[in-house]
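W.,

You were right to be curious about this one. When I first looked at the sequence I had no strong expectations either way, so I just let the prediction run and decided to look at it fresh. Below is the sequence, 351 residues in total, followed by the output.
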Amino acid sequence: MKSSLKKLMLLVASLVFFHSAGLARAGADPLAGRTLEVMVGFSNTGGGAKFWQAFSAALRRHLPETSIRAQFNDTASGAQGASELFKLPAGSLAVAFVRPPELVFAQINKRDGIDYDLRKVNWIAGVERESFIMAARRGLPVDPQVLRQSPKQLILPVSDILATQSTVSILLNAVTGIRAKIVVGFNNSARLKALLAGDADFYTAAADAELQPLLKSGDIQSLYTITGEVFPPEVDQSRTLESFLVKDAPAAVVEFIRSARGMGRAFFAPPGVSAEDVEALRRVFANILADPDFIKEAGGKGIPVAAVEWSEVEKGVAHLMPAGATAKTQLDKAYECGLAMSEGTADRCNF
């Protein structure tokens, strides 16, 4: 009797052990036995690729039984690759790694070959927070009223008229009342060189390691902060976008500017991915962004990491694609007026 009871207890213990082990495996890899397709919307040599390389190593540790297959596609800042994901059938398992504002701008500008609606995606996680300033040449007055009354139109260089930086700059004309002539044809390096040479007056720039030594030396200065929380000590944080706004500047336009500049890289799942898989991906990605080993590895390679809730990314995209007619009207009006200020046919905007 005792022998039979002992055998029964051992059998129960074994069943509990194997059941627990199975749950542990399922918890460790909720997508076991499947293939996760990843579209990396960046070049394979830039900062996006560097982040993905570190993140993908951590992703494989957290999903040991999932096959991860990545493909780079930076055509139109990843917009072409995003369009392809929208064609995947229901039940697919895929994510895109992108800069949300770039995809939004490709959609609202109706660029060729773009066939998606970002309002239908499921955001998984943001991995970066951007801190932006209006970087200015040395000696430029920092009083907004003085700049508004400048007899000479200020020069603001951008890459092309459809770029995020260009749209933001045009809107900043409207809400700050400072007339800047938007001049196209300048990449990142050329914009900085123009500022250092005194051929340009200011432009929106990330307050990153590239700018810090120039801010410290005084070769350039921060006119005002636009968005973010982490700035070099040389940046006067009392001069904010709010302190440069004209009276009655529409909140929708200001939030658009902040979202367009402050949203860093993020992951989304296309509409074909099931709700259950979306939740699983969100849990896994959140765990990775809180993983001390990943944070340490990324930090050792100089890769900044920030865990941004998917809902925050979704909210930022909503600011860039407002559903309400009032916000749309305010944005259109501000853009039209800011562009007129750039072209010299308007001195200011009346809100």
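Here's what jumped out at me. Residues 22 and 105 are 45 Å apart (CA to CA). And, maybe more interesting for your project: The domain at 132-261+325-343 is CATH 3.40.190.10 (D-Maltodextrin-Binding Protein; domain 2).

Coffee later to discuss?

I.
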